[in-house]
Amino acid sequence: MMDEERAARVDSPRLGRVVVASYNIHNCVGVDGRRDPQRIVDVIQEMEVDVIGLQEVGGHTSGSTTVDQLAYLASHLQLTPVAGPTLVRETGAYGNALLTRFPILECRRIDLSVGRGEPRGAIDVDLDAHGHRLRVVATHLGLDWRERRKQRSRLGEALADDAGPVVLVGDLNQWWPLGCRPNRPWPGFAAVRCPRTYPSRLPLLSLDRIVARPIGIIDTIAAVSSQLAVRASDHLPLRAVLDLRQ
What we know:
This protein is an alpha+beta fold. About 20% of the residues lie in helices and about 35% in strands.
């Protein structure tokens, strides 16, 4: 993090500065095939986030112990967790999650399942971000473009009447080159640069997205490509700084 950004963070209650991120943690399995929740903790710590949407969060067996990954991450990061499971496995629930340092004002869930496809959903929360109401939606959309079209429509309907600041984070599975029209998935959301996040060792695709409204609310956005982030998951995390003074 740049020195000037660290300085701004100290003044964030006055400036309305919020750091958001999206991270597909691949069930805590890195590109070396090793499952290590602590690496995910370390990656998130280096981003210094206020709120982060996670995908592919589950549980796993370590020796004779079943590890709840969301509980592990929340405890070690000292952030408040919100679970958004879409599947139930032998090791527990699996799916989306959200971690935040802000007070949660309200929490909702949006069902995005389509037909016989894999169950999908979104976490939809209102946060008190330095005195500003901030709506954050965290999701993981389907692999088929027809499925995603229906899911985008449902999300658009859910968010249509909200005039306040809204940020959508997630693995949107949009297999499009950088700069194509899906940068603006719904009217009113800012069209911003979409850094490449997948695969983490040689990012070619912009699967992970952060979009927000009103237009201009996103100050900076970048993929986090530290050596640790490259190893910890098959996706790089995506980090953005919002300015809620807009």
